[in-house]
Each structure stands twice: as structure tokens, then as C-alpha cells.
Specification:
Helix 4 crosses helix 7. The strands form 4 sheets. The chain has a 4-stranded mixed sheet with strand order 8-9-10-11, with helices on both faces. Strands 1-4-5 form a 3-stranded mixed sheet. The N and C termini lie far apart (51 Å). The protein contains 11 helices and 11 strands. The chain is 39% helix and 19% strand. This is DUF559 domain-containing protein.
Length: 284
């Protein structure tokens, strides 16, 4: 299990860690952290507005901590806490070995978030929980797809339809929320073949690059460029060299931005479909 500790108190996750530690000191043994608070503790991606938002005057307002209790016990009414009454058996509760913090297991947390998140957000969260390590130093997955499936089958919980719709799209090799979004836009919305995720490019049996989304049979790859790729000069230069190397190896790379996945989804799908069909025609 990952160790929980306070980070920068001025950022949203750091504030949650600090408040969790403070409340954990007085929290009754019957209570545990759940929902969005548990997501933050597991360091899993959720929309930032769930734990912190700006009010009408522009000041940040922190959301209450989500604290659960199993029925028939009564939910907490403590200030700064949003009490949640949960049916027995609808969540597994675990204890962090270092901090002693009680919270819902990763799989239970994901299933409970069906009442809060959209289908896309549930896939993003699920991908993060089951993600296989990218490097030797990376931690192991927090859950398996089978564990998510079992959690989804427990009771007719709120959001169960979204949970069931999201589950088939969860994959173990998506390494970022935007990679997940890109895949969903292409496959679910665009009806395109499912690409390989973080496809390793080998030269003399050594991995020289991992392509975010790839169609290896077509030597076509898609790479998501976040804003830091545009504003960081060193990263920009590194990207150029990397794309040149992949082109020399025969890869055609399409670069994708946040705008493509938001306001330009239709044109983005059309561009990829056109590229796929064009390569297939040339190779036939």
C-alpha cells in the first residue's frame, strides 16, 4: 500500500492530506475515508473541483472530507466533514500500515465514485488504479480489473449503470488521463480500431521510445502534447529530436492537443480516420 503524507499545504491534494491527518487523530474507529477524499489519498486522478473550487469572489473553498460509516451507525456531522452512510458489504475498508489511516480500498473507491463521476472520468480513474508499472521504480497497480468488476457487482449502488458502461473500457497500459481520453474519443466516439497503448519502439532489442497510442501494423502513432510541451524549451527540443528519430524508423506520428479532445473532437476523429484509410490504401 502507498504511504500517505502531507505535501505542499497550499495545493489541493496537500491540503486534503493535512486535513485527513488532523481528523484521523479524533476519528471514531467505525469511520473511514471514502469517495473523493479516498481518491486523493490513493493519489488517483479526479476532477480538481471535487476537492477545491473558487467561490464567486475568486477565493478557493475547500470541499468537506468524505467520511463513511456502515449502517446502522450514524454518519458524522462534524464541521468540515461530509458524512456518508454506506450499506454493509458495499465497500471494503483497509488501513494504511504506516499512517494507520482507514479508507475504502481502491476498487471500492472506484465503484463508489460512480455516483459522482461521468463515464469518461470513471474510465480515467479506473485506468490509473490498474496501471501497470512503467519503470522499475514505479509502484505496483492499486487494483486489478477483476477487483473493479467484483466491486461493481456489489449491490445496486448509486451510479451502477455508469460503472458498468465504463468497466469494459478500462486498460492497464494507459499512463495518463489524456491518453485515456484520446483512446475513448477514437474508439468509443469515433468507432476506430483500438490502438495499442504506450507501444515500445525497439532498436537492437532496446526500447528507444514508447508511443502513446499506436497502430503498429500501419506504423502510425498518436502522441499527446500537453501545454508544457509548448512552453518548456528543453522539452520542445527533446520532442523534435524524438519525432525525427521515429520518422527515421518509418513511423508516422500525429500530434494531439487538449483542444482536439475538447472542442475539435469531430475534426480530430476525421483526421485520424483519413490517415488510417490512406495508409491502408497505399499498402494494399
Amino acid at each position: 500500500m502507498r504511504t500517505f503524507h502531507a505535501e505542499d499545504p497550499d495545493d489541493a491534494p496537500g491540503s486534503v492530506f493535512r486535513r485527513v491527518q488532523e481528523y484521523a487523530e479524533v476519528m471514531p474507529a467505525s469511520q473511514f475515508f471514502c469517495l473523493a477524499t479516498a481518491c486523493v489519498l490513493w493519489r488517483a486522478p479526479i476532477p480538481p473541483g471535487l476537492m477545491r473550487r473558487r467561490d464567486a469572489s475568486g477565493v478557493f473553498v475547500e470541499s468537506p472530507l468524505d467520511v463513511g460509516v456502515f449502517l446502522p451507525d450514524r454518519a458524522s456531522r462534524t464541521r468540515g466533514v461530509r458524512g456518508r452512510s454506506i450499506a454493509p458489504g458495499w465497500a471494503d475498508v483497509v488501513t494504511a500500515p504506516v499512517d494507520g489511516i482507514r479508507l475504502t480500498s481502491p476498487a471500492s473507491t472506484w465503484a463508489m465514485m460512480g455516483q459522482v463521476l461521468s463515464e469518461d472520468e470513471l474510465v480515467i480513474l479506473g485506468d490509473a488504479l490498474v496501471r501497470m508499472p512503467q519503470r522499475d521504480a514505479d509502484p505496483p497497480p492499486l487494483a486489478t480489473v477483476d477487483e473493479l468488476r467484483r466491486a461493481a457487482e456489489v449491490g445496486r449502488r448509486p451510479g451502477v449503470l455508469r460503472i458498468r458502461e465504463a468497466l469494459p473500457f478500462i486498460r492497464t497500459r494507459s499512463w495518463s488521463p489524456q491518453e485515456t481520453r484520446m483512446r475513448l474519443v477514437l474508439v468509443r466516439d469515433g468507432g476506430l480500431p483500438e490502438p495499442e497503448l504506450n507501444w515500445p519502439v525497439l532498436v537492437d532489442r532496446a526500447v528507444v521510445a514508447n508511443i502513446d497510442l499506436a497502430y503498429p501494423d500501419l506504423m502510425l502513432g498518436l502522441e499527446y502534447d500537453g501545454e508544457h510541451h509548448m512552453t518548456d524549451a528543453a522539452q520542445w527540443a527533446k520532442d523534435i529530436r524524438r519525432l525525427e528519430m521515429l520518422a527515421d524508423l518509418g513511423w508516422s506520428i500525429m500530434r494531439v492537443t487538449k483542444r482536439d479532445l475538447d472542442s475539435l473532437r469531430g475534426p480530430f476523429i476525421a483526421r485520424v480516420r483519413s490517415r488510417v484509410l490512406g495508409i491502408r490504401r497505399r499498402s494494399s
